[in-house]
Amino acid sequence: MMTSEMNKAIEMLSAGEVFTHGHLPVAAAYCRRLGVVDIVNRLVPSQMHLKPGLVVQAMVLDTLSGRTPLYRVEDFMAEQDVELLLGMPVAATRFNDTNIARSMDAIFEAGPSKIITELGIVASKTFSLDATIPSYDTTSTSVWGDYRGCESEQPPPGPVITHGHSKDSLPQLKQFMTELLCVDRGVPIFGATLDGNSSDKTSNNRILSRISSIMARHGLGQGAFIYVADSAMVTEKNLDALGNNLFISRLPATYNECQRAVVRAVASDSWEDIGKLAEIPTGPNRPCASYKISGTTITLYGKNYRAVVVHSSSHDKRRIKKLNKAIVDSEKTINAELAKLTTVYFCEADAKAAAIQAESLSKKLHTVTATITPIEVRKRGRPPTDCPAPTTTRYLLSWNLTLNPVAVDREKSIAGCFVLLTNVPIDGGLKMSGKKLLQTYKGQYGVESDFAFLKDPLVVNDLFLKKPSRIDVLGMVLIIALMVWRLMERSMRVYLENDVKIDMPGWRRRRTRNPTSFMMATMLIGIKVAYVNGQRIFIRKPTPKQMEFITALGLDESVFLEPRCRCRVIIPRKLAKKG
Asked: 298: which of 168, 201, 375, 540 lies 20 to 30 Å off by Cα?
């Protein structure tokens, strides 16, 4: 028999709503700490009843929900505790396609990149991000529409959706480009949507023309930060555009100086072994690469630069494939030339001359060794019956084609090398050793993992927006979502770094010191809250395991109950001590 208390509870629940929360209230708390709603509303003039800031935060949370398709925000909000996520009660029906479209148009007119820049500054200051090493890169996103208007002489406002170099290996589709400038574990502080046929070299030049002003707003002047970019940055115009700014990039293999530096390093064999640099251990089927380096200097466009030749035990597959092809081609070429030589000679001198000719066919990868063997052959004609048949000496030329192991090993060493180009000094304020340069350059993987987030089908499916201007705004929403995603991940890791004695639940019932936002989102599934008579009460409270994540994020269980809850900023202990 049910008690009166149970009947009362059932009656209350029947009069209210029940929400199954995951990680979205946590993400909303981070949005509030960043001031997403306030910043967007301040930068986007609007007389609309539904303010653009609320639209942006709703779209950001929709993006982070993993729900598809992205563009049906109204359906998404209808299933959520809107007041808890946005800080104020708003009818889900207000997030219809018409209102969303109007807000996106207003945001485009105000400038999506301005909003990202302002949020980046707030994120950097609020979360004490280390902005001294900004990393830059671009990626392409393919679309299925025709976007024929972009091919006209007067294309519509927004990025030009057109064919270009596809980084997704989908050259048949039109695309747009996205650029990101990231700091401290891949947190974006600047980003924009670019034309689909934008060149990485041109994009680098454009960002370099603005990098000083962008970083100045983060309190860093020239010489106080190190710009990190891939090899597309290395052009004469881009190196000039750097001015006095410090940089680290990869010298393209197409430069003669790159090959010369590698050959010198391999020939001198004076390497500094720095071992493995991977932050996260890998399994036995995927061993970590081991590195060794050799410092040198090179000259480009009349200027001297510091260079570090890096050899990786994990050889570049493309280069090894090219080397293997060169070995096969070399063998075929030599055998074809050897087949043209006569193998039997009447004169020893002629045989020796042919042997020299055969051995001269030796190449870098193969060696030809010729041998002359005298043989006795019977003379032509009928031999006499009373004595042995007369003979004459002939000279048989043979050869042996062998692979040159020393040369092949040398070429493999060269194939496993690349060159880092920099103007970062060896000593001084922002000095860096060769090992630190490599670690800093490899830190660019944070930007690449960000691109994987932006292209994840759980984040954004095929795009259905017809106007390029709205694609520009959608790109802004995705970058803001990425900013929140990375800040949550960074907070958890800083929390663990501040206390070396603790770890967190990981995959397969193991503990980890490298939690990810995806891991957190997976772990927080199943928390249930009822909204009854203006109050929120737990039906299923967070478990102890879930509370470990919530605490590491700078929150407590009130994040699922209080609409204005903000995350507590977790400052790295080393910075807190300085303060």
From this structure: 201
